[in-house]
Amino acid sequence: MNQQSRLAGDFINQRTNLLAQKLRETGEDSRLEEYLRQKLIECRWRDDLKDYCKEVIRQKGLEKITIEELTDMLYIRGQATIPNKVKEDLLSRLRQFFDENQI
User: What is the Cα–Cα distance from 39 to 49, expressed in whole angstroms?
Assistant: First the structure.
């Protein structure tokens, strides 16, 4: 990694840390978390993930699957199935917060 790449990485890390700090200080992190939770409930993402979990357990058998395996499967499935609209809305809210707070 060259000097310029390291500096760019450091700058991004600083901005990310500053954004996270501002989100916590203003309580916006909690508001965004609640917004995300509600959107995922509205689009049935949680229900679909719960159904997937039950199906995996049914297929593999409760005795033959570990919590770690199930957690890994749910993590992958959960990330892959978040609707793009929810991701876009959340990113838009983060950008707006970023701009409003001149981060």
Answer: 14
